[in-house]
Amino acid sequence: MQDWKQLEQIDRDIRQLREIAARLKTVQPDFPALVRNADRILASAKMLELNVNDLIDLTTAAQPRKKSLPPAKV
Amino acid sequence: MMADSPYWNPYLETLPRERLQALQLAKFKRIFQWAYEHSRFHRSLYDDAGITPGDIHTFEDIRRVPKVEKSMMRDIQGKDPFPYGDALCVPLEEVSAFRQTSGTTGRPVYQPDTWQDWEWWAECWAYILWAQGYRPRDRVFIPFGYNIFVAFWAGHYAAEKLGCEVVPGGVLDTQARILKIQELRATAMMATPTYVLGMADTARSRMGIDPADLTIEKITCAGEPGASIPTTKRRMETAWNADVYDHAGATEIGAWSFECRNKPAGMHVNEAFFLVEIEDLQTGEVIEKPGRRGKMIITALDRFAQPCVRFDAKDVIEWDEHPCDCGRSFRLIKGGVVGRADDITKVKGVLLAPAAIEEVVRGIDGLGDEYEVVVERPGNMDSITLKVELMPGAKDRAGEIEARLKDQLRLKTNLGYQLEFHEYGRLPRYEVKARRFKDLRKRHG
């Protein structure tokens, strides 16, 4: 049931999703429908981070594999 | 197939303990740093204690972090930014939801959440509902007055997230709610144990409906410890012919624990999202091993608008020595939340947890679900009165019931009681949190 190798790809995809949503949020600040919906996507992306990215970044006692994502501000 | 997975997150929920603890430690550092950098209240608290984010390396270091009491959260309300005060870590315009505590123990505490925090609430609940067998095919009825109290709000959002169909039973009265469950053939429900029993009583006594004949298959309880009290759980499960599961959460904390489908006589702590510590009630010494009760100190590891870092929740719990057969590595607390540090009190020199009385009353056939306990001190001695209701048709067994009640109370609580038997329906009924334990000794000076 568990596929850690695939999880690493999911981890990368979520980071990309977050980057895209963050960019959409700021690209046209006077476009409320874009800003607010991108904001909601970022909140959902955060839940994916808690479920996947944190699992990969933070579950080893040693130094994290890469810098963990900061707490998103929504 | 998604619906076949027993876990909402098959990786996190079965993570080896060592990795789970590494996750908790890393997350604690993150939320501590966040609070330190964004909340004037927290920074001042930590500066006064001489501790900064760079000082946290181990769980021992975490124990040096000052605890936050509910009274402290009350005190900061009224400071800027209004109405939350200076524990708020985000600009006010990012707050999208207001809730407040029920005020059971004093002035209510306000709780701000951003949309992200609200997603997080629902995510915590998604772990609970999935573990209790909620699936997209379920039609979930929520008989709760949607209002300023968090209660089942996040359960509603989580059920939607799972793909369930949610029926909000908001302003309907109890009879209308029962009819709606019947009409829509709802398969699941969320309510306090008091209300689950109250609904069953209303269905039987006023509507001629046996709730066991309705289509409810599972019930999630919260707000009171009843679903972890075996006799109360049995009454609810028998009344509704449904599986009843417990869950504990709080407005300032989040939805931190749940009973899984294995019904292990306890609840899992969602240790991927929360760090739970247990302290001795008298000495404050950390309790790491099973077998000793203490009060819970809890950190919500991923809640950011108004962080919950080492919150003194006053819930009394103990670790279970046995892991659950469900495969989760999240530890169990034995018997759920067994009481509140505020409620566990000495009567006639004996420590008394009100839940123990409930367990006895609801274990005796012929007694109604309702009861009331009154502790007084008319002179120099404590006096404890237990009021119960005799079920219709049980009057001819009153002597036998009284003897059994006395025996069981003595056995389970080591105390003698003055017993009052009332006619069925005479004691107060409650819709949300019941107040059945009344300690009037302070009034007597």
Report helical residue fraction of chain B. 25-40%
Structural class computed from helices and strand pairing of chain B: alpha/beta
Low-confidence stretches of chain A: none
The number of distinct structural domains of chain A comes to: 1
Task: Supply the number of helical segments of chain A.
Answer: 2
Strand content of chain B: 15-25%
Q: Measure the end-to-end span of chain B.
A: 64 Å
- Counted beta strands of chain B: 20
Percentage of residues assigned to helices of chain A:
55-70%
- Average per-residue pLDDT of chain B, rounded, comes to 93
Oligomer: heterodimer
Overall outline of chain A: elongated
- What value does the Rg of chain B take, in angstroms? 22 Å
Head-to-tail CA distance between termini of chain A: 33 Å
Category by helix and strand content of chain A: mainly alpha
Strand content of chain A: under 5%
Shape field of chain B? globular
Major sheet summary line of chain A:
none
